[in-house]
Design brief:
Layout lengths: L8 E7 L3 H12 L5 E5 L7 H4 L31 H15 L5 E3 L3 E7 L4 E6 L2 E10 L21 E4 L13 E5 L3 H13 L2 E5 L6 E2 L8 H9 L1 H16 L1 H6 L6 H14 L3 H7 L11 E2 L3 H5 L4 E4 L3 E4 L3 E4 L4 E3 L2 E4 L14 E2 L6 H8 L15 E3 L12 H22 L3 E4 L1 H15 L3 H4 L21 H7 L8 E4 L19
The chain binds 3-acetylpyridine adenine dinucleotide (N01).
Length: 509
């Protein structure tokens, strides 16, 4: 429960204070758009980096790239930073931005409805109701844990938690633990658990491809250079960026280009695992890249440990004391960790956003699949912007790059609204349709569609509605300027006087 009370009107309401919401707040402020609020249901900035505190949590994109271009951090200790360092970075950027006075923590947006007459969003929260000219979602695609639909899972008598809701109070030392899932989270958790638990069962439904993690500490000299010669750090960032972009043709056009990565992954298995049966179990039967490529030097050695079992038999049910697989075997455990991912293709926030005619975005997307224009705006939902919307995700590079691209687009949209006194804008239906038809055409033949796997990139209709299928610089170019000709616009805008926040000039000394 929060002691904040919300009422009145703001020009911009941002939902979520992760990388996306924070970038939006900083850039709105920079543009002089000071009448905004950021609602955050948690009690701190950071989003997914605040929530994912499981042992071993770290970024699998190098931090030089997985950070804001406008806030370089010379102090990264390693090439792939651990979660606490990333969270501290986000906190520091937030502190230094001077925008935190407009963040409202512990506030959940319950519902947002487009008011056609007043041309604004009516937003209800658990801390009061307010209206907003624009609604900007920075809620993220990896925020709502997906729990597995396994018979009896609620009956387990020991402790159970999702990877994104780690319970630090549970002492795992010497315990019998099971981890369900072998995705990006699980492969970071498993080696850490293997160090302390008595026995570990890892339940694998599909083997992931795991390449070596070329991680290292930055030397004192490198950090000195980052601090005093910012050009050097930019050079690192640029080199990492282009190195990552090299994956795109392998994923989208020429599968043979993925052969070196696949060979690296097979070498990673061969180095750590000698037992032929285990080797066969961990070797994927689909093309590398079809699911997210994982990086770890420690995962396979952990699986090869005597006190760790990789279970590939289908889980039949969970009992109060353990997990029963389809062959009837029950493995008893004390603690159950579910590392089964997130709601990605059915973004939960979409059910709380009601556009023209009162229809929720969730309903619209349930009918036709998740779709937006440039991953940011949606026909029927005027003045709504979504950061990390449909088809903005990446399998190979930094989401912060995509977030900054979208933030630039939204800033330009807002500047256009101000300049041309538009009250409302939404993408034209035909433009949005063409945009998505082109995206889906491009998906055909990519490793995500033709790679021979099922993944969270695909929705129930088998459409890839999560990933961007082109180079990230193409997305950057497409979002570099607001293309008002692609939009239906309404104007002129009526000026508001009942604002919730004040500009610095208006705040009494
Ligand atoms: O989730 P996932 P995650 N019974 O969906 C299995 C990002 N991330 O939390 O492959 C049994 O990838 C499922 O099996 P299958 C990153 O974008 C980033 O690990 O569907 N198993 C899979 O093995 C990543 O992609 C970092 O057959 C079930 C696993 O659970 C995203 O988060 C670090 C099951 C889910 O894997 C999600 O990763 C961590 C069931 N009923 C995460 N249901 C960085 O370093 C699901 N599974 C940046």
């Amino acid at each position: 429960m929060t002691d904040t009370t919300l009422s009145g009107h703001v020009d911009h309401l941002v939902v979520g204070a992760g990388f996306a919401g924070l970038a939006m707040a900083i850039k709105l402020d920079e543009d002089g758009e000071r009448d905004f609020l950021v609602l955050e249901k948690g009690h701190d900035v950071g989003g997914t980096w605040r929530d994912n505190t499981y042992p071993g949590a770290a970024c699998d994109v190098p931090s030089q790239l997985y950070s804001y271009s406008f806030a370089p951090n010379p102090e990264w200790s390693m090439s792939f930073s651990p979660q606490p360092e990333i969270q501290s970075y986000i906190q520091r950027v937030a502190q230094e931005s001077g925008t935190l006075d407009r963040f409202r923590f512990g506030v959940t947006m319950l519902d947002a409805r487009w008011d056609e007459r007043a041309q604004h969003w009516q937003v209800s929260t658990d801390a009061g109701d307010l209206t907003a000219t624009t609604l900007i979602s920075g809620a993220g695609g990896l925020s709502e844990p997906r729990l597995p639909d396994i018979e009896g899972i609620g009956s387990f008598a020991g402790q159970t938690f999702h990877s994104a809701r780690w319970d630090d109070d549970v002492d795992l030392t010497g315990k019998r633990v099971a981890v369900i899932g072998t995705g990006a989270s699980a492969i970071q958790i498993v080696p850490e658990l293997a160090k302390v638990v008595g026995h570990l069962d890892v339940y694998q439904r599909t083997a992931p491809w795991v390449i070596p993690r070329n991680d290292r500490h930055y030397t004192a000299l490198e950090r000195f250079a980052f601090r005093h010669l910012p050009g050097i750090q930019r050079l690192y960032r640029t080199a990492i960026y282009w190195g990552r972009e090299c994956y795109v043709p392998a994923f989208t056009k020429e599968p043979r280009l993925a052969a070196p990565a696949q060979a690296l992954a097979l070498g990673n298995i061969a180095r750590a695992i000698k037992d032929p049966e285990l080797k066969a179990k961990v070797t994927p039967d689909y093309r590398i890249g079809c699911k997210r490529i994982l990086i770890s030097n420690a995962y396979y050695p952990a699986l090869a440990s005597d006190h760790v079992d990789l279970v590939t038999d289908r889980i039949a049910r969970v009992t109060p004391t353990g997990i029963v697989t389809a062959d009837g075997t029950e493995r008893e455990i004390d603690v159950l960790v579910v590392a089964t991912g997130f709601h990605t293709t059915d973004q939960p926030i979409s059910h709380h956003i009601h556009g023209r005619g009162g229809r929720s975005l969730g309903e619209t997307w349930a009918r036709n699949g998740m779709a937006a224009y440039k991953g940011t705006t949606v026909h029927g939902y005027p003045n709504f912007f979504q950061i990390v919307g449909p088809n903005v995700g990446l399998g190979h590079s930094s989401m912060v790059f995509m977030i900054e691209s979208q933030v630039a687009y939204i800033r330009d949209a807002i500047a256009t609204m101000r300049r041309d006194r538009y009250a409302a804008l939404e993408p034209r239906a035909d433009v949005q349709e063409r945009y998505n038809a082109d995206l889906q055409d491009r998906m055909e033949g990519t490793v995500w569609s033709a790679g021979g796997c099922a993944s969270w990139y695909l929705d129930d209709h088998g459409r890839n509605t999560t990933l961007w299928p082109r180079a990230t610089f193409t997305f950057r170019r497409q979002t570099s300027a607001f293309d008002v000709q692609a939009y239906d616009v309404e104007g002129p805008r009526t000026d508001r006087t009942d604002r919730t926040t004040q500009t610095p000039e208006e705040i009494p000394a």
